[in-house]
Amino acid sequence: MPLIVAFCIAFFIWFGVRLGEIRSVASAGYEPGTKEFSAVRGGISSSVASSKLIYLFDLLREHYVDTLNLNQLVEEAIPTIVEQLDPHSMYIPAKDLQSINEELEGSFSGVGIQFNIQEDTVMVVQVIAGGPSEQVGIQPGDRIVAVDDSSFIGVNNNQVLKTLRGKKGSEVKLSVMRPHASEIFHFSVVRDDIPLYSVVAQYMQDDETGYIKIDNFGANTYNEFFTALIRLKSQGAKRYLLDFRGNGGGYMEVCCQMVNEFLPKNAKIVYTEGNSSPRRDVDANGQGNLQEDKLVVLIDEWSASASEIFAGAIQDNDRGTIVGRRSFGKGLVQQQFELNDGSALRLTMARYYTPSGRCIQKPYTMGDGQDYSMDIVHRFENGEFYSADSIHLADSLKYTTVGGRTVYGGGGIMPDVFVPSDTSHVSKFYDQCISKNLYFTFAFRWKVEHQNELSLYEDFASAYAYVKEKGAWKDFLRFAAKAGVQPSSAELAKSGPFLERLVTAHILRQLKQDYYYQAYNQGDATYLRGLEELKK
């Protein structure tokens, strides 16, 4: 009797689904039994495809000659299916989901250090203020040689992250070697929440100009951004240079909150639309605090997604000037769906459009991720990084801003002011210093040797002057020579100023993150052009 009842229930469920399909297709004007009926029914119903997959796995499980790991087959099959879609839909295995989400969520649990691997050893570059490592006495310059009594030599970045990050409240034992000390120090560190900051630099360039560097658009980015604005405003800022170079995007909602600070009421920020997603418009609410302040936005070929929404909204509303190079062209909207095994699928649902109607997404071919990933290389080969004239856009891609200016679609945001990529400093000497990581290794050692003196300086100008006066650049040239890297007079003239700026910036970064950008930006062409535009 239970079997008969179960069979009847299953039959009536199947019959109901089948009847629904017949009615759906017949209502479109097709008669049951015709070829058209069968074709449309196949397009409407996903049950055939899913049943086919289930049947395939049943066959493999019951009849295949060898024992199979079907879970592994599924893990390999899903990415293959997703790869046939657009370039930004992606499958995230359960083992990778947490680390991928952490950057956007704005925190993770760990020991609270920034590190670099030097000579097969994990070197502590910076200890996060108030974090677990600082509380137990770990210092910059310490080398981690053992973790939980096991050797920690010869590890890579992924191994370091996997080992040092962990559940909040869990304990890890670190053994470190300290410069100028013969003994090994042992610390017990209790992991805690470590914040990840999106606003990586903020400072006053002059009495009226505030600079803010933003790396991504995470859950906490708007709060960080607003705090930075308040701090700069209190110091007299009346114009702002926002740096989105290298910013790959993040949450659209967070980006819209930030743009809202600069736009008048009812000004359009962005709209999204897709085949299964009705148009959704986002407009400014008129409560922004910086509607009258001057604004320049810096972008480059690695500025994507939310960065492009921000730049497009400012440009189409004639609210500020965009300076740099054409942005990446990532204008597809993803929604993340959690799967029952802890994995996730980020599925493209719609496209981003700027207020004038430009689609931010650059062209792509379904299933051809290889060609899509080579787009930046093609731009370089075509000369786009060095000349705006290398970019050819069709008249059909013309759009109009609020003020009547012509802007172009076709993928990415074209800046109002083009600044070519600067390669004037490249030489064999430069390549060797970069490939051997000499600038970073030297900067770290020099800072450790001058720690006591550097700690006396509480502002950028005095710390910068000390590094210059103490001859850090000449010390670097001697350090490079000992490593077998010695420039000719021509190479020194060509690459010297850039490398000196880079070395100085990395020394000062160990005092304060802002100092790195203050030092490096002094000779950065895009930054300097942005300042010019602000003052016009």
List the helices and strands and how they pair.
Layout: H1 2-26, H2 35-44, H3 47-63, H4 70-82, E1 90-92, H5 94-105, E2 107-110, E3 113-118, E4 121-127, H6 132-136, E5 143-147, E6 150-151, H7 157-164, E7 171-177, E8 184-190, E9 192-195, E10 199-204, E11 209-214, H8 221-234, E12 239-243, H9 252-260, E13 268-273, E14 280-283, E15 294-299, H10 306-316, E16 321-324, E17 332-338, E18 344-353, H11 369-373, H12 375-381, E19 398-400, E20 406-408, E21 417-418, H13 428-435, H14 438-449, H15 451-454, H16 460-469, H17 472-482, H18 489-509, H19 513-520, H20 525-535
Parallel strand pairs: 11-12, 12-15, 15-16, 16-21
Antiparallel strand pairs: 1-18, 2-9, 3-4, 4-5, 5-6, 5-7, 7-8, 10-11, 13-14, 13-18, 17-18, 19-20
Structure characterization notes:
The chain has 536 residues and is α+β, with helices and mostly antiparallel strands. 41% of the residues lie in helices and 20% in strands. Strands 3, 4, 5, 6, 7 and 8 form a six-stranded antiparallel beta sheet that branches. A six-stranded mixed beta sheet has the order 10-11-12-15-16-21, sandwiched between helices. Strands 1, 13, 14, 17 and 18 form a five-stranded antiparallel beta sheet that branches. A hairpin with a 5-residue loop joins strand 19 (398-400) and strand 20. The N and C termini lie far apart (87 Å).
